[in-house]
Amino acid sequence: RMMLTTVLDQQKDHIRGVAITVQDITREVELNEAKSQFISNVSHELRTPLFNIKSFIETLHDFGDELNEEERREFLATANNETDRLTRLVNDVLDLSRLESDRTYHFTPVELTQAVDQTLRSHQLNAKDKGIELCQDLDPDLLPVRGNYDLLLQVFANLVGNALKFTPAGGRIMIRAYPLGVAASPGAPQYVRIEISDTGIGIEVEDQQAIFDRFFRVENRVHTLEGTGLGLAIVRNIVDKHHSKMHLVSEVGVGTTFWMDLEQYPSDETPICGSPSGR
Ligand code: ADP
C-alpha cells in the first residue's frame, strides 16, 4: 500500500513537497484471505447438519402419519444428534474466534495434578465404554506451570478426546508430565514437558503438520459425527498463547504422542542467583 501526502508550506500555502509512505500489507491481505476462507468453510460445515435437520423435520411433518413409532423415534434421534453437532461446531468456532481476538488471558500458577485429574475423570466413562485404559504419570516434584487453567483444560480435553476417538479397544492413553532439566542460567525459566500419548491408529508423516489446520481431517477415515475438524486448531492456538509450540510423533498402526513444554511458575523457594534465602 502506498500513500501520497502533500506537504504544505505553513505561511505561503504552497506545496513544498510530496511524502510517500510505503506500507507492507502482505500480512494483512493474507489474514483477510484466511478469514474469508474460514468463513466459507464454516458456512459449508454448518450447512450440512442444518440441511439434515430440516430434511428430518420436513419428512416427519409431511409423512409422520405413515411412519411407525420406531421410525419416528429414529428420525427424531438423528435430528437431535445433528443439533448436537451443530452446537459443537458453533462452540468451536466461537472458541477459535475468541482465541484469535487480541484479548489477553489471565495467567496464574496451574497445578498440573489438578488439571490432569479433572481431565481423566471427565473421560473415564467414555474410556471404559470403549475398553481403553486411561493413565497418568506425573513427576512427584512437579511445580505449577504458568498458564490459564480453563484453556489448558481445553487442550487436555481435546487431545484426550481425539486419542479416544482414534484408539481401538484394548488400547492405552497416557498423560505424562515431568520437569525438563535445570534452567539455562540462574533466573531463566524452567519448563515442564507434558505428553499425551495413545496406542491408536497413528498419523501419516505427510498429514502431521496439516492436522493443526482448521477443518483438516485425514482422508479415507471413517469420521464419526463427533468431530468438527477444529479441535487441534484450538489446541495449537491455546498453546501458542502460552508461548509454546505443539509437537507430535506418530507411527501408523502404533500410536501418537502430542507434547508441549510449558513454563514453570517461579516459586518463592527458588533461590535467585544463588544468594542465601535467609529462611
Ligand atoms: P476432529 O474434530 O476431526 O477430531 P481435530 O482438529 O481434533 O478434528 O483433528 C484433526 C484430524 O487429525 C482428525 O480428524 C484425525 O484425522 C487426526 N487426529 C487427531 N488426533 C489424532 C490421534 N490421536 N490419532 C490419530 N489421528 C488423529
Reconstruct the topology from this structure.
Elements: E1 2-8, E2 15-22, H1 26-63, H2 69-100, E3 108-110, H3 112-130, E4 133-138, E5 145-147, H4 149-165, E6 172-180, E7 191-198, H5 231-241, E8 247-251, E9 255-263
Parallel strand pairs: 4-6
Antiparallel strand pairs: 1-2, 3-5, 6-7, 7-9, 8-9
Helix pairs in contact: 1-2, 2-5, 3-4, 4-5
Bound molecules: adenosine-5'-diphosphate (ADP).
Adenosine-5'-diphosphate binds at residues 162-163, 166, 198, 200-203, 211, 216-218, 221, 223, 227-233, 256.
Subcellular location: Membrane
Organism: Prochlorothrix hollandica PCC 9006 = CALU 1027
Domain Histidine kinase: 41-266
Which labels suit this protein?
279 residues, alpha+beta, 5-stranded mixed β-sheet, two-stranded antiparallel ribbon, 5 helices, binds adenosine-5'-diphosphate
Overview of the structural elements:
It is found in: Membrane. This is histidine kinase. Residues 41-266 form the Histidine kinase domain. The chain is an alpha+beta fold and 279 residues long. Helix content is 42%, strand content 21%. It has five helices and nine strands; from the N terminus they run E-E-H-H-E-H-E-E-H-E-E-H-E-E. It has a five-stranded mixed β-sheet with strand order 4-6-7-9-8, with helices on one face. A two-stranded antiparallel ribbon has the order 1-2. Strand 8 and strand 9 form a beta hairpin. Helix 1 (26-63) runs antiparallel to helix 2 and helix 2 runs parallel beside helix 5. Residues 269-279 have low confidence and may be disordered. The site of adenosine-5'-diphosphate (ADP) has 22 residues, from helix 4 and helix 5.
